[in-house]
Amino acid sequence: MPQPAGSNDFTGAVRLATQGSLALIRLVEAMHARIQSVPGLPAPTAERTGGVTGLVYRTVRGVTHLVGGSTEALLGLLPEAVARGPRSPRHDAVVAALNGVLGDHLEATHNPLAQPMQLCSAGQPLTLSRAALAARFPEPSAGVLVLVHGLCMNDRQWHRKGHDHGEHLAAALGLTPLYLRYNTGLPLMENGQRFARLMATLLKHWPHRQARVVLVTHSMGGLVARSAFHAAAGAAWTRRVSDLVFLGTPHLGSPLEKAGHGVDQLLDAAPYAAPLARLGRLRSAGITDLRHGLPPEVGLPPTPPKGPECWTIAGALGAAPATLQPRLLGDGLVRLPSALGQHRDPARRLPFAADHQWVAPGVGHLDLLSSRAVARQLVDWLA
Predict the structure, then answer these.
(1) Could you give the CA distance from residue 319 to residue 322 in angstroms, rounded to a whole number?
(2) Does the keyword Hydrolase apply (predicted)?
């Protein structure tokens, strides 16, 4: 049954729109201040104008604040019957995308659109108490499958093109599928710490005390899982995990985020264009972390977590996987060496065993979620 959208989502959207308008006003004023500078002299560092011009900008900002606050107040008066509505997959996809791009900002400003970290079953968040889990799963299986989605996505998007790896593996291996939902715009290490705490709570109260635990991750989700193992080194729950699977995880970073960082630097170098660099930096901490994956300077070992069997799958578009083209293209978002952990520097290389890695020919980044060939490989590995 779809969850209600609630007035909180409307309030969050209004607040975000107001903040966006204010940011745009500040951007225009900063460019105005720089253009007003005397030719031949260095561009000013101050980004506020003075005199009558400054008064105009201050007035516009004041009106924007007033309209935004008034709209939020009116939304708070809406009857619940009017404010509530069904949460469709499209609605959840939009909220997930916003969290991916602006999630750190949403949380910092206490925006209702900020997605809390939750474990879900059939699209519904779970209460992680012994009584609630026993009521929800009266006949728990001997194994728990936890699926961790990637950037700008949510738990419902594991279902793609009529296929769901969670449902498929549950039927083939007798596991209970649980899906993580989280704010992908937060720093990777922060999400890793939260996931570690969530897993500890889940397994403390799970009805089957000796249940096998399997983690299947996609894209950024693999980095979150690695961060969780690092944060929970030696914790009891980590010893319960038998297998950890990475699908298209950018262990060594994503070329798209690296390219975006280069554009930022070019804009910053031009005096009048420098304020525009802010537009390029409208990327969350989570996206920025994808520039280099999980580098050693964050204190995370380059090797996969010790304990579980670690498996990795990379998508390869283009010609035969052995040629240069698929190595450069990878799955369209993550290059082959990054997904397989193959770095020129041995200190940053992830030593996946040869029989613990597999390349899916002709499969793109999102299609790793729906590929039947990938599903068969997962069953072969995890059975």
Answers:
(1) 8
(2) yes
